[in-house]
């Protein structure tokens, strides 16, 4: 092991080549190039193979990261991919969009010792891209066909992961989604420069080719009642995600030019997919994005690519307390986005109903709130104006009214579906829930984890039904 691994003492950390900021401002292509095999092996060899793998412990999927890094360093690429694939339905997607700096890489032991983390996400992406290129990823292998069927509401990462796991076990799976394409936020919420859409489409095609049925442009509760769905399927998974935007509530927030972040991103992604979209873009506009999470970073970087005249991000806390990925913030700064830290919107000014500027309070951090974070408070007399004829509110998401789906499903005081944390079963027998609709707005990797865990519980439930039917038939 010593000959292949522990090379962090002599080999510097190196990311895949990143396209120049000036060039990438003009298109929606991914900004990082791929590793070549030699470079992937070199970077993987920096792993220290710790006795306690903190990278794995801090991965929601508990991916066997040290194992596939060692195999990569040894040039055993197919074996490395097989281990990566065993715990993750979408490793090449996680390799692109996971905030590794907050998860596996942020917990890397050699990072803590000052040598710079192993580039885990880039190696993960390399392995599965290589598997696709070499034809190692085969159609779904169904263990044996089973008669019972499952209905999954939502074609996002939780729903897709659950669908794949259940289909492998042989259950008949149908996925319902309100949009015209499967993928949820993977297809419509995340910009191409982070995740090109053919990466998602080849995953959903593999599921469809494996016998999973997709019913799109279908809103459960409107087009098909939840009760009818329960009659049709022996088990149901609710994986609708959380899409209701937290609104901007300051004076003037109803002016033309103020819009929710997700609407802006969906329209942009639809254009990239070739759809005709009539809404305004950021072209030639002074854009202000309000928020400090990953969605806000997606918005500022999308506005740059749409040809905005200027892009400013307002965030009420300082840089150190920003919830978004440090890597994404740095990419945005390279691309010309201006950040106003410790700034909170006070009002939106308009001319004849059209936004023209945002007045913001200058903030300072005060005492800690119940979560342990310092509370932002306005500095008296320090407000200022930022020119803006497009204002994008990226303030987070909450669940939509679940009564529109079903009045029978129990929800929490936050509006999320109440589900058993171990089995993911709701108050209704045979009805399960996973992903953001249970957890609240979170990461794709958590949605995949919960989709897999829900599938395991649903498989157990369906097997019990199957055995009961067999026993009844025998009698």
From TrEMBL:
Which terms are listed as keywords in the entry? 4Fe-4S, Iron, Iron-sulfur, Metal-binding, Oxidoreductase
Domain Dihydroprymidine dehydrogenase, residue spans: 25-135
Q: Which SUPFAM superfamilies match?
A: alpha-helical ferredoxin, Nucleotide-binding domain
Gene3D superfamilies in UniProt: Alpha-helical ferredoxin (1.10.1060.10), FAD/NAD(P)-binding domain (3.50.50.60)
> Does the keyword tRNA-binding feature in the UniProt annotation?
no
Q: Which residue windows does the record flag with biased composition (Basic and acidic residues)?
A: 11-20
Q: Where is this region: Disordered?
A: 1-20
Sorted alphabetically, which PANTHER family does this protein's record hold?
GLUTAMATE SYNTHASE [NADPH] SMALL CHAIN, GLUTAMATE SYNTHASE [NADPH] SMALL CHAIN-RELATED
Q: What is this protein called?
A: Oxidoreductase
- Organism lineage string: Bacteria, Pseudomonadati, Pseudomonadota, Alphaproteobacteria, Maricaulales
């Amino acid at each position: 092991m010593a000959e292949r691994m522990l090379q962090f003492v002599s080999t510097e950390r190196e990311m895949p080549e990143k396209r120049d900021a000036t060039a990438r401002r003009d298109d929606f292509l991914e900004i990082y190039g791929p590793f070549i095999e030699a470079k992937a092996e070199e970077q993987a060899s920096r792993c220290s193979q710790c006795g306690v793998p903190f990278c794995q412990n801090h991965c929601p999927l508990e991916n066997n990261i040290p194992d596939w890094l060692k195999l990569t360093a040894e040039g055993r690429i197919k074996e490395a991919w097989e281990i990566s694939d065993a715990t993750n339905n979408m490793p090449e997607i996680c390799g692109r969009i996971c905030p590794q700096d907050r998860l596996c890489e942020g917990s890397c032991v050699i990072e803590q010792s000052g040598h710079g983390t192993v580039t885990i996400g880039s190696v993960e992406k390399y392995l599965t891209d290589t598997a696709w290129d070499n034809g190692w990823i085969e159609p779904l292998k169904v263990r044996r066909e089973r008669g019972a069927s499952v209905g999954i509401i939502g074609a996002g990462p939780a729903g897709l992961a659950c669908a794949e796991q259940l289909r492998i076990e042989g259950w008949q799976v149908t996925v319902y989604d309100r949009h015209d394409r499967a993928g949820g936020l993977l297809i419509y919420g995340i910009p191409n420069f982070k995740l090109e859409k053919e990466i998602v489409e080849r995953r959903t095609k593999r599921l469809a080719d494996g016998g999973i049925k997709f019913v799109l442009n279908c809103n459960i509760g409107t087009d098909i009642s939840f009760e009818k769905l329960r009659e049709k399927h022996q088990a149901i998974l609710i994986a609708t995600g959380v899409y209701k935007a937290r609104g901007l509530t300051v004076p003037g927030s109803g002016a033309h030019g103020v819009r929710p972040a997700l609407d802006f991103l969906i329209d942009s992604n639809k254009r990239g997919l070739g759809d005709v979209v009539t809404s305004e873009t950021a072209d030639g506009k002074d854009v202000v994005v309000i928020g400090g999470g990953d969605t806000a970073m997606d918005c500022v970087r999308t506005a740059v690519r749409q040809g905005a005249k200027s892009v400013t991000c307002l965030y009420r806390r300082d840089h150190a307390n920003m919830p978004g990925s440090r890597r994404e913030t740095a990419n945005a700064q390279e691309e010309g986005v201006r950040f106003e830290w410790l700034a909170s919107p006070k009002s939106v000014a308009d001319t004849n109903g059209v936004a023209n500027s945002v007045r913001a309070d200058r903030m300072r951090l005060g005492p800690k709130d119940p979560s342990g974070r310092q509370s932002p408070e306005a500095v008296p007399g320090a407000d200022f104006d930022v020119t803006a004829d497009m204002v994008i509110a990226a303030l987070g998401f909450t669940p939509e009214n679940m009564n529109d789906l079903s009045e029978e499903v129990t929800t929490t005081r936050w509006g999320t579906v109440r589900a058993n944390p171990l089995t993911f079963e709701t108050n209704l027998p045979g009805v399960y829930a996973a992903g953001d609709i249970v957890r609240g707005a979170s990461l794709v990797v958590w949605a995949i984890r919960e989709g897999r865990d829900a599938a395991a519980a649903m498989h157990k439930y369906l097997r019990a039904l199957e055995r009961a039917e067999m026993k009844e038939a025998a009698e």
